[in-house]
Recover the amino acids of this structure.
């Protein structure tokens, strides 16, 4: 162990100080090996073997023996394990010893994080003075912070979506609200999508509130909301826009006959008595309808007003009826 004797260090001490070192004798055979390099060799015993039988030199180019290295003291090196020449090389430096050998010290370079994961390295595989552990700690801290930031961003995004959803939802019935309607109508008109619009008002709802109380009225409103949901498609917009007023937007439906059938089904279902605390609540629905085919892209307000006019025509005709806006023929 000439190299170690020359330095006055035991193999264990040198391995602790430089866990990625290779000690070579003047003939280019391996005299000592750091514990981390030994770990990478996975049980192989390279002591006594020729350096170039275990390792290969990638840089500098043109070196064919350990003797060539001795002629380039202080030269930066790139070294691979002989059986893993296609992997990223280790970085290192070779310096001559007093006995004519070489002491080579290596590092993982920019592959440090990958190497730690690939070989399950710990802080015991690095010299106490090596800043690699601090760097790994900072990387882990950064990863933890980034993970937490991603979690917070997802949480904030979820809260934003929930808040936007709540802002467009009627809290009593779970239907869309007027704000949602006012956002949807102009969009459909601008896109040129044909659709039908129903304005629905409950008949006799005030009597329910006056005789059985607001709790009964709320129960009826929730029941009507459920009825409207049943009689419409998931792609339709059903909104509560006032106390006992509802609007239904039906994209893709602009035929008067089909819309009239849907309106009649809604009237029939809403007219069924609703039980509340042992008592029957009776309401009906009057409906005004209009078709988007008679309006321009910026006439959402006019369309709602015309459906409202048709609604009052239904009420004046005897309630529990549906009427189309007369200007549309």
């Amino acid at each position: 162990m000439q190299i170690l004797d020359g330095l006055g260090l035991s193999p264990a001490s040198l391995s602790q100080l430089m866990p990625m070192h290779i000690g070579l004798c003047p003939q280019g055979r391996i005299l000592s090996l750091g514990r981390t390099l030994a770990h990478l060799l996975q049980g192989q015993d390279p002591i006594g073997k020729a350096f170039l039988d275990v390792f290969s030199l990638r840089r500098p180019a043109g070196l064919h023996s350990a003797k060539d290295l001795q002629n380039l003291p202080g030269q930066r090196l790139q070294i691979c394990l002989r059986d893993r020449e296609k992997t990223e090389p280790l970085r290192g430096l070779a310096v001559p010893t007093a006995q004519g050998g070489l002491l080579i010290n290596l590092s993982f370079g920019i592959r440090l994080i990958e190497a730690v994961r690939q070989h399950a390295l710990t802080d015991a595989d690095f010299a106490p003075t090596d800043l690699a552990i601090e760097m790994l700690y900072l990387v882990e801290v950064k990863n933890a912070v980034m993970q937490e930031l991603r979690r917070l961003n997802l949480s904030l995004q979820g809260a934003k979506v929930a808040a936007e959803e709540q802002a467009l939802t009627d809290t009593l019935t779970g239907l869309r609200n007027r704000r949602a309607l006012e956002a949807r109508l102009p969009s459909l008109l601008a896109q040129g999508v044909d659709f039908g619009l129903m304005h629905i008002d409950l008949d006799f709802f005030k009597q329910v509130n006056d005789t059985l109380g607001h709790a009964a009225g709320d129960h009826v409103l929730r029941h009507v909301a459920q009825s409207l949901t049943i009689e419409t498609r998931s792609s339709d917009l059903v909104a509560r826009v006032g106390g006992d007023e509802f609007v239904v937007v039906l994209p893709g439906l602009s035929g008067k006959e089909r819309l009239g059938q849907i309106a009649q089904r809604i009237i029939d279902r809403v007219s069924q008595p609703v039980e509340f605390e042992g008592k029957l609540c009776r309401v009906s629905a009057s409906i005004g309808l209009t078709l988007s085919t008679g309006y321009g892209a910026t006439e959402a307000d006019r369309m709602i007003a015309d459906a409202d006019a048709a609604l009052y025509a239904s009420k004046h005709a005897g309630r529990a009826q549906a009427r189309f806006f007369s200007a549309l023929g």
